[in-house]
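Subject: Interface between my chains keeps coming out wrong

I've been trying for a while to get a sensible model of this assembly. When I model each chain on its own everything looks fine, but I need the whole thing in one frame so I can look at the contacts. Pasting all components below, labels as-is. Any help appreciated, I'm running out of ideas.
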Amino acid sequence: MTTLSARERILGKLRAAGAQPPIGVAEIDTAINAHYSARRPTRPMSIPESVDAMRAALTTAHAEVICASAASWPAQLAERLTAAGVQRLLIDPETPEGAALTGALPDSIEALPFAAPIEAWKRELFETVDAGFTVARSGIAATGTLIVAPDRGSPRTMSLVPPLHIALVRASSLHPDLHSAAKTERWSAGMPTNLVLISGPSKTSDIQQTLAYGAHGPRWMWVVIVIDRIEADGADQ
Amino acid sequence: MTSAPVHFVPPTDFKARARAALQDEALRKSFRGAMDFLQAKRSVQFPDVEELEALRDLGEAVRQHALGRLPELLVELEAKLTAAGVHVHWAETADEANRIIHRIATASGARKIIKGKSMASEEMELNHYLGARGIECIESDMGEYIVQVAGEKPSHIVMPAIHKTRGQIGKLFEAHIPDTPYTEDVDELIQTGRRALRRAFAEADIGISGVNFAAADTGTLWLVENEGNGRLSTTVPAVHIAIMGIEKVVAKLEHIVPLSSLLTRSATGQPITTYFNLISSPRRAHELDGPHEVHLVLLDNGRTQAYADETLRATLQCIRCGACMNHCPVYTRIGGHAYGTTYPGPIGKIISPHLLGLDATADLPSASTLCGACGDVCPVRIPIPKLLVRLRTEANRPPDEAVVHPLRGQGARYSRREHIVWRFWTGAFSRPRAYRMFRWLATRLRALTPRRQLGWTRHRVPLKPAPCSLSELLRERDQPE
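Reply #2:
Try treating it as a single job with all components included. I did that and got this:
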């Protein structure tokens, strides 16, 4: 009952102020759209341009970028994982990418599906998993951002708890900026439980403004940008 | 983890603390360095003045629109979140919010809480409240953690431990975290923090976070961070409690696009932070992690007082980037602790009187040179200097004067003598005949000017009128007045 009346009291005070928005929602929407479209090149970015921007931004943010074709990335990534000494890799084998990578892994790397609710194996997840592999829904070229929508096969902690996060993104899914991503993907039509925008490994500069990586999230981040030959050729024309 | 006892400082001792801070060379050096660093980082992010100004216009428009429809948007946000399974609570005071959170904790039998960064929870002294009731709250943001281990409070809203050197942090960790040798290596110190908090994330019963923005149209909480502790706090424990000041809601998710860009670029000079964490519901039946229960606590704590007044309402446009403090000549010289308030610097001077009352914060609006730097850098164009002047007026208004929107603590600095002097002054300067008479008397009787002139002579030589006025001099030269 007390919280109910707090609600009424707060809303009552706010309503009593009789405030009015000085500018309508349609005007704001138009202004925001105009702001962002005016600052984009008149010709849409080609895929190689998007990939270059994405790679540059991610590299600045201390992520490692691997650009590869759809056919070659699983073997390339498997090789790097082996070299990095990864032993347990969280992966969703149900996705085509997860299946492809699993198939390319050597025996020394265990492909571990996220099979049970976190409560059942929290300790193990925190203490024994070396890396997590997720497929990003899309990316943002300007800021080197991966848009990750966790689901049953790739829950939120997969890109968060292991010290190495590997994200795969298709070059064709790159948006020029956040505004374009939100618009094109129609975020306002409905949001998933959790949507995460990731722009590099975890970091902090809380001690004397000195940048350090691996604060609480992954210390290392690898991003696989898959460039489909046909897409790249098509964009070059 | 052990930590030193927390020292609470009352904001009423501002002047004494400011004086002490000015004598502290190490503190001044560290703030000067940090502020120079943050100013440079910000300015690199805005190479194009036209783009910056256009983005500030958008930011201001989005925030003003949202405030103009605040009650409606809060109800919409509540409806959307409730439909998604989030529990929404309303708290008029900090104490009420603390009680709500304590109740949630008790209901789920929680003993341990892991916290992401939340300035609203600092306002509420939540850790202290829950600690006294046997529930341990551990701060997980590196800066907040350092400050908590030291038994202090944040000195900056974005970088809480900005007043501490790496050497001080090295000693602190050595003393308080088991098996930790002294080091000044920042990487090692961060890894120590990571190690110390790893288990806390896994063992916590509840995760608490703040909220940077909330979108009413989709019912989404938008959290901005670099470390990943916010994601861990809102993902790993079974219960997530988000605390949000009522002003943080905006009409549409897409409106957050320009705001988030203004926030990260103004605050830390980053084009984007490592994580934008957008939460719209608790874990659904088919999902394997994320909290089963999500609560949102909407906190008023004096915000409705600022909201009632059309001018002071602009205070609530704030997106908590900290750029105003990074550019403030006063903050740079005295640091964040001298203020004794949760929010230091210019934003603290204009928001704290609503949270704590003008009686507790009467010195704050005057602790400014009105140089205007804060207003110039504010990403949402809050007219901070104008609001400071307004709060000075309210602090000096007679306590019993009836006004449309009285502020708590009105007249906290009111002095009858000063009031009479100003009344006389206003009267003399607004009536030409009275002014001429005063001028004649003042120049002729200048020998009688009092040597002690209230606050003026505390730091300056007394004012004394000239032997004859400017207009008399002009008249002598046959020039008209």
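Reply #3:
Confirming on my end. The CA atoms of residues 283 and 292 of chain B lie 5 Å apart.
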